[in-house]
Amino acid sequence: MLSKKAKYAIKALLALADSNGDEPVRIADLARAEQIPPKFLELILLGLKNQGLLQSRKGKGGGYLLARDPAEIYLGQVVRMFDGPLAPVPCASQTAYQRCSDCKNEAVCGVHLAMKEVRDATARVLDGTSLASLRSKVDQIVPPNT
Amino acid sequence: MLSKKAKYAIKALLALADSNGDEPVRIADLARAEQIPPKFLELILLGLKNQGLLQSRKGKGGGYLLARDPAEIYLGQVVRMFDGPLAPVPCASQTAYQRCSDCKNEAVCGVHLAMKEVRDATARVLDGTSLASLRSKVDQIVPPNT
DNA sequence: ATTTACTCTATCGGGTAAGTAGACTAATGT
DNA sequence: ACATTAGTCTACTTACCCGATAGAGTAAAT
Known about the structure:
The first copy, chain A, contains six helices and two strands, in the order αααββααα. Chain A is mainly alpha-helical. The structure holds a DNA duplex.
């Protein structure tokens, strides 16, 4: 299950990617536009900033903006940051491997093998999808009215 | 995250598939062999029986056995049964679709699109893997000493 | 100096996962 | 018949974490 935090984070990042990249967007505006509880979004954006994905500007005319090119912000990083490893089970994780105590021999464990396949499949999707590529995929289905 | 229930269920099913299919296996034996808390396993096996994946026999010489051919028991069914839909987000689920309230237009939602890809990828793995095929995959890597 | 808006810590309620306990029921063997 | 074996069922406990909110604090801009 994707947490609300991760979900809101992606929505917010996409919105920021869409907005003209130079002017900061206020938390309150973003919250209203994306239907996210403002105080909750606050927390999320702060996290994204600490990860280096966002910049902030304080005071009047302040707000948040992307710290990098949308083509170089991948969903994998965002999801891992809020929800932890992609693997359904710690022993199948690439980034946070952990042996499971109740497993005599990992090499012969069916759960391990199957879950490794699942993790690889989802990693392929999420680490292969950037804000920019996601945007263009959406536009391909429903063209923007320019 | 895969729940312990689902994980234990898969392990138990695999063990049952390996055991000579005609003699029932006792909960206690299965629990010891797979390092699962016996009372907890009890619950899990009961669930699997109610789903029609297992049969049981009471009294002396009793226990559990598979109700179907291992080639026709798919991980997807087991995981869904204990952990719910495979999709990371309800609006991306095939088997339990649910619109999300905070989404103005699903067709233009990046989260929806990306998560649908994730769900398809994991469904491809889990609905394509049976106990039998999983067993043979494991054996292919570490041949059994016959 | 004042306003604006981000920063940080603490807290709360509710839900759920993991595991345990114990009484009950059904089948088997002698 | 009856004791034994083993699955069935309900209820409970414990612990943890998610989603959300509150409020005081800090930094920047005009």
